[in-house]
Amino acid sequence: MKKSIFTLIICISAIQIFGQSENLSMGPGYSNDIYYSIENGPVQEVPRNNWDIAFYTPKFSAGVMINEGNGVTLYTYPAGDTAAWASVDTAGMASWQPVYNSPALWEDGAFNVNATGHPDYGWGTYNMATHNLTGDSIYVIQLANGTFKKLWIVGKQSLANIYTIRYADLDGTDDMTEIIEVEPYESKRFYYYSLASNEELDREPASESWDILFTKYIDLTEDNEGNWVPYLVTGATSNVDIGANEFYPVSDDFNSWGEMPFDSAKNVIGYDWKSFDMGTFSWEISDSTAFFVQNYSGDVYKLVFESWEGSTTGNFVINKSLVSLASVDELDTETGKFMAYPNPANSFVNIFVSEDISYESLTIMNLSGQIVHQSDVSQTELRNGYKIDLNGFAKGLYIIQLNGNNIQSNQKLLIR
Fold first, then answer.
1. Is the same domain home to 70 and 172?
2. Alpha-carbon distances of 107 from 21, 63, 206, rounded to whole Å
3. Sheet harboring 243-247: ordered strands across?
4. Confidence category of residue 368, pLDDT binned at 50, 70, 90
5. Contact 416, 343 (CB under 8 A)
6. What range defines the domain where residue 363 resides?
7. How far apart are CA 362 and CA 229, in angstroms?
8. Which pLDDT score is estimated for 117?
9. What backbone torsions phi and psi does residue 387 show, to the nearest 5 degrees?
10. What are the start-end ranges of the E strands in 250-370?
11. 226 and 356 housed in the same domain
């Protein structure tokens, strides 16, 4: 049992708990994307300029996005469907309206903007019999280097998770057809492709290893006339199904994240917690703003932006703290569970055991393994709720351990 307790302590001690400030950098010009775990910190940093389009990886998804954060722009060809491939004409292109990735949903990329609903997914149509999609639209895409290409997503074999794309220069030269096998990368959110270098790219960490992506993307911003218009911004986007909410104005010690439901839209944190002061010619962080993020484990973290230097360095500082643990954890227990309530706790905690199990002692340890509380307990006391006075305990994460005859149950306790 001593070995299991030690493993638990090591595991939990990796969590950043109270007011942990962290220096991050996207590099000059915000040139890099940072995949970030709210629990563990930076997971992967990658250049943003090495891809043009990306495919959402689930088999039964038609999501395809563009690298708008690197200046890639997409237009739906208005003068014909795929039958017009050989005769694409960009006369009058100045009046074409570009299409953008959804600022709220990862799966709705720029290629999906014209979707009218199942079975029409924008770039193509779903076949109920084969489950495949057939491309029915032509696009003109402007790459970050300023060159234009025509592009046709020919189709997708859904069960095999294989896309076929065709692209060429506007005059028809350098006509390329590529088969892109996405299945090996289904553990990632997207699989990437560079039209500039004709190259497939695996540039993401595993899907559930990160919570936030610090990046550049198109979102809606308010212009001088009060109209909402697409604009390139730099900020924080949440991973798929990561919940987040925002509170303003709040005091520094505000932790009541449950007063507002979590929203899984990718731009809940977004970009507008900062603004540029033309008087000082510097970036300012919005005062009294706090975000709360719930990760895939169910733990809730508070996130506060402390500074933002801008594109010269790409440096910024965040402050994060663990404010709520997920449900009861049971580790290395042969039988039996117990509940600690409230958790997180302030001045006291009650220990309840609902099952007919005879524990004999209760121990609370800090993350260094030091025993900070120990008492004998009875089955009756635990069934009725055994109250422990926490006055005098330092804020932090602890381990509650109940011991009986060949039985041991462990649970985390957060005191704040």
1. yes
2. 32, 5, 17
3. 20-25, 315-324, 300-308, 290-294, 243-247
4. low
5. no
6. 326-415
7. 59
8. 94
9. -90, 135
10. 274-277, 282-285, 290-294, 300-308, 315-324, 339-341, 348-352, 359-366
11. no
